[in-house]
Design a protein that fits this description.
heterodimer; A: 223 residues; 11 helices; globular; B: 206 residues; five-stranded parallel beta sheet; 6 helices
Amino acid sequence: MDLSPIWLTLKLAGITTLLLLLIGLPFAWWLSRGRSFFKIIVEAIITMPLVLPPSVLGFYLLLAFSPQHGVGKWLLDTFNVQFVFSFQGLVLASVVYSMPFMVGPVKSALQQLPAALSEASYTLGKTEWQTFKSVLLPNIKPSLLTAIVLTFAHTLGEFGVVLMIGGNIPGITRVASIAVYDSVEKMDYVAANNYSLILFSITFVLVIAVFVFNKYQAKSPLG
Amino acid sequence: MISIAIEKKLKAYHGQQVLQVNRQFASGSLTKIYGPSGTGKTTFLKTIAGLITPEAGTIVANGITWFDSDARINLPAQKRNTGFVFQQYALFPNMTVKQHLQYATTDELWIKQLLLLGKLDTFALHKPEYLSGGQQQRLAILRALATKPKLLLMDEPFSALDLKMKTELIAELKAVLKELGATTFIVSHNPQELEGLTDEEMVFGF
């Protein structure tokens, strides 16, 4: 059995989750603070992958980053970077596709923290970043973990969007979900079952781990 | 000397009210603030701390302009060095008693003194969820004192303390505030509990 689709999937999910921690947390924090029409628009754009068919998202990413024209051509000419039919393209698509799974839970958790926690920190002379790092983030641990696992697990299961932008290139863009589809197409049900079982097992363990962790964290911090 | 002349709109059940304060307070003075709920006592404290922005006016503390609506000056809360005791304590659930104080100051000797003042030295490694209501309230007071503020704003700071603890703490607090030279505002529903502690009073109401 060729395990490269599994390793590629895990690599993709790991990189996507790390990138979304860097991008998604500041976004979630910014969105959690007050409301404005601009923020509503930004949040709607971030949320779109939840409701949009993955193939639609993949199609637009394919158009946007096509090396024939526009941004894709500029990236290729200037930096020699090509997002279409490449691993970095999968990462880009995954970051966009899984963004709501990182931003949503973290934003909700931050909104539920009393404003007085930040205020107390500010009166102690702490900056917004120090407050976020030392006060807010440690107090939303269960939601943060949920967001990390959901992002990782969601990326593991991506199909439509990665197929559109990455295609099915063994070792480069052929992730596990595509390997399942490909195996079924070739009527190799044993391979399809193996890939499916591995994906199922990893995802199941992750979800159970979140539930177990959150069971012990669910108690109100102040009783 | 702290000079406050502000106007701040308040949202009230029976329409909008305006909080207006125009008064000066001597350095090191202790002012008790009381009045019915919803008259803007907490808003007043938060406005001084820089956590709420008034619609108009000026706040000048020890010669430094913290807020001036005409000159568009609004010093952020971080730069005002005020100590603030929140009504609901606003303790950090992830930090122990000692970590709360270490978050505010690096002066270990001062931290030790504060723990003794609040009788929390034996609870230094406890997180807020393992403290009683009174202990939590004392920790909130200690945290506010940790930065050695020149202006201390306390919102119902003694409401969860029993009479004995309250009497002892108030007496010791008075000495600490004198040592720090801090100008202090205390909001209380029970003005009698501050009898003999305060120099001035403000009554809020519409």
